[in-house]
Structure prediction request, 420 residues.
Amino acid sequence: MNYNFDVNKFIEDFKNNCSRIYEKTFFKNEVIISYIKKREQVCILLEGTADLVRYDRNGDRIIIDHFSKNDIFGEVFYNITTNNELFVEAKQKSKVLFFSYDIIHTKCKSNCKFHKELSEYFNELVLDKITDLNMRIELLSKRSIREKLLNYFNLLSIQKFSKSFTIPFSLTDLADYLSVDRSAMMREMKLLKEEGIIVKTGNRITILQH
Amino acid sequence: MNYNFDVNKFIEDFKNNCSRIYEKTFFKNEVIISYIKKREQVCILLEGTADLVRYDRNGDRIIIDHFSKNDIFGEVFYNITTNNELFVEAKQKSKVLFFSYDIIHTKCKSNCKFHKELSEYFNELVLDKITDLNMRIELLSKRSIREKLLNYFNLLSIQKFSKSFTIPFSLTDLADYLSVDRSAMMREMKLLKEEGIIVKTGNRITILQH
DNA sequence: GAATAATTGTTGCAAATGCAACATAAATAA
DNA sequence: TTATTTATGTTGCATTTGCAACAATTATTC
Prediction:
């Protein structure tokens, strides 16, 4: 998406002027942020990919969200009610922008223009986030593994403007994302292949009919 | 939740001053808004309850979201990609505030203070919305009907500050909301009762252990 | 480059879920 | 009030899904 907004220039200016925003790089499997009650940190993913993960009391891992460039995350968007740890983990080398939620809608002392820009940019990102979450809810609402897969493939296809695409997860992670058993998901993929609905070579999928 | 903000007074002032915002009352089963691509309507539910509903290509009804007082909804939050109609339906007599998304972040000609207030209030509501959506995603991620029910009951219990509460849905709708078969859900509720985990009389639940 | 770890792929079997069909109770309309 | 619709509650059976255990392939580390 194009926000008509030069993030990198903006960040440089902001960092020079504001000092309440900072950037950090993370490597694969590092924890970017662990959600803590009452703090109000917000992050924007500038580069890389990351997952919001929880291990629930059965030991099941849930991938609650999957982030890529320009996605926002942080504890402001979450009501922390249980004790189960909730954290965002880098899936590859990632650059992340950190700031506190309150700087977005309050002016800084110097009344700098960067706050205004961040605020506007942030609003766009928030709308995108809500849209993504709604799509994910529809995905999880599908009643069968088959429907979840087909729906997910369809979303990727629309995103990539093509009937062929690579799944941006490992299949193990995809199963956690769709909230189904991995082996059952593999079985269903096999059936979809056998029925001529998709072509699958490794993590690359082509939709033939839908 | 308390936003330290007098919505009703605000609305009166706004309607008198701005004319780009209006309020309407709906009765049970009436369609409040049908989501249309490219339009950018936003609604705030002032009174009553309503559901965001879709019928998918299998004829299954999905309750994508359930709204009560102060919830926001509208097509800005949705990417309309399929042809399946998507609409919000009043579940009881409801009062709804309508306006276009663009009025929130642009000043009106008279530079009135209401825009500023609406903008601030709106930001609070947006955060709440994201929090709700995230909770719902976790709920739908639960791997079994039992886990979904217990998780949902737990949320209600926290919301109502009590181990006893009334389910704000019909059980038929709750099944659609949790995205499970109604009879299977009833069976699971029965088991939870028999195992002494909950007490259930009609739509009233008491959690005994969890 | 060999050893180790992680991911993909497969299958039998048990358990959970959905489907269908129905009975009963409650709410709504005539 | 009575009739009609809608919601709740129940059960047998078929299907789907999850679990467990393993083989094969691909990445990663030493």
Q: What stands out?
A: Chain A has a mean pLDDT of 84. Chain A touches chain B through 34 residues (CB under 8 Å).
